Amino acid sequence: MTVLVTGGGGLIGSRIVKRLLARGETAVSLDASADQPRLDGERDNPKLRRAAGDIRDYDRLLALMREHAVERVIHMAAVLVPLTEREPAIGFAVNITGATNVFEAARHSGVKRVCYATSMSTYGDQAKYGDAHVTEESERYPYSLYGYAKLINEETAKAYTRNFGLDTRGIRIAMVFGHGRVTGRSSAMSRVISAAAVGEPAVSDVAAGQLAPVVYVDDVAECMVRICFAENLELPVYAGLSTPATLQEAADIVRFYVPGADIRFADDAVSYQTVKKMDGTRLERAIGYRLPALERRILDHINEARAERQMPPLAQI
User: Fold this and answer.
1) Burial of residue 223 (number of CB atoms within 10 Å: 0-12, 13-18, 19+)
2) Which pLDDT band, with edges at 50, 70 and 90, does 271 fall under?
3) Radius of gyration of the CA atoms of the chain, in A
4) How far apart are CA 44 and CA 264, in angstroms?
5) Domain parsing of the chain, residue ranges
6) Which of 45, 224, 252, 285 maximizes the CB count within 10 A of its CB?
7) Predicted confidence band at 58 (pLDDT cuts at 50, 70, 90)?
8) pTM for the model
9) Are the C-beta atoms of 151 and 142 separated by less than 8 Å?
10) What is the dihedral of CA 159, 160, 162, 166, to 10 degrees?
11) What number of CA atoms fall less than 13 Å from residue 33's CA on the CB side?
């Protein structure tokens, strides 16, 4: 099967592409550049197609889907906070118009299913829900332009299903951590782990007690690939898999594997609004996947950072 991955050269998208290739699928990886260095290890794979393009360019999307006879799409391309808040026109052009272009091109190309990343940011802040976990049925109260864009994506996708019969499936992704995440407040956990892993001091600009539902980058990729091929799906949008954790808890796990790691929290470290508990039980059942332990995934993150510096991996204790 041929699958188009938008944002295929990115942190998550490249891992999706690699999983598709490992399954024996043909992967068309679309990103701003055809170079896509994260995929260099697959350069000789005959089932990889790297393409340059912008999801704001509808004609390019349509031509690409038709040229490669794309059967399914995994849409990951987006711009994130803080750019979406500083440059609303860019954020909306990419995250709303771009996503709509993907749906529109798919319906005119015979695509069987479009899977897309939406976000826990559609829920807004935990204060709206008290101590309860948010679920697929929870009301959504986004407060950021990014969150509103993702909410619009969800409703647009449902309209394409309702009006044109296009099968669309979204996952509300939790706060992603992994080596290579460096921008925005939600990257604080990633930056701390990556620095400490290679013996560098890590100073967090986000408070130690900041709690959020987190998910490792590889698990996001696995979920997106599984929902792309899963059968008998019941919901158009699923709450994503996650583990609630504070930055302090993550730091403590890092110190367990890297004794003496220099991790500090800035005196002016901030907290920010977010949901803190998300129930991904329905997605877990739908795709048959359960998250590994947080300790295991932080170790994976540590070892990826170390491998980049040609440092030996640390063993699980």
Assistant:
1) buried
2) very high
3) 19
4) 43
5) 2-174+216-239, 177-212+243-276+292-308
6) 224
7) very high
8) 0.97
9) yes
10) -160
11) 6
The Cα 138–Cα 171 span in angstroms is: 14
With tokens 């986004």, the residue in question is 142
Distance (Å, whole) CA 259 – CA 264: 14
Question: Domain 2-174+216-239 has what CATH class?
Answer: alpha beta
Residue 94: CB atoms within 10 A of its CB come to 22
Residues making up the chain, counted from first to last: 317
Percent of the chain with pLDDT over 70: 100
pLDDT classification of 184: cutoffs 50, 70, 90? confident
The phi and psi torsions of 215 (rounded to 5 degrees) equal: -150, 140
Peptide bond preceding 244 in cis form (omega within 30 of 0): no
Residue with tokens 């860019």: 90
**Is there a contact between 180 and 154 (Cβ–Cβ < 8 Å)?**
no
User: In angstroms, rounded to a whole number, what is the distance separating the alpha carbons of residues 57 and 71?
Assistant: 20
Tell me: pLDDT of 185 over 90: no
- Is the Cβ–Cβ distance between 143 and 86 less than 8 Å? no
Encoded tokens for 143 = 């407060």
Give the integer Cα–Cα distance in Å for 229 and 73.
11
**CATH architecture group of domain 177-212+243-276+292-308:** Alpha-Beta Complex (3.90)
- On whether the CB atoms of residues 88 and 145 are closer than 8 A, the answer is yes
DSSP bridge pairs for 28: 4, 49
d(CA 214, CA 116): 18
Find where tokens 């930055």 sit.
247
| Count of other CB atoms within 10 angstroms of residue 32 | 14
DSSP state of 55: T
Q: How far is CA 67 from the centre of its chain?
A: 27
Would you say 91 and 147 are in contact if contact means Cβ atoms under 8 Å apart? Answer: no
| Token pair listed for 281 | 């039980």
Asked if residue 129 lies in contact with residue 275, where contact means CB atoms within 8 angstroms, the answer is yes
pLDDT at 316 over 90: no
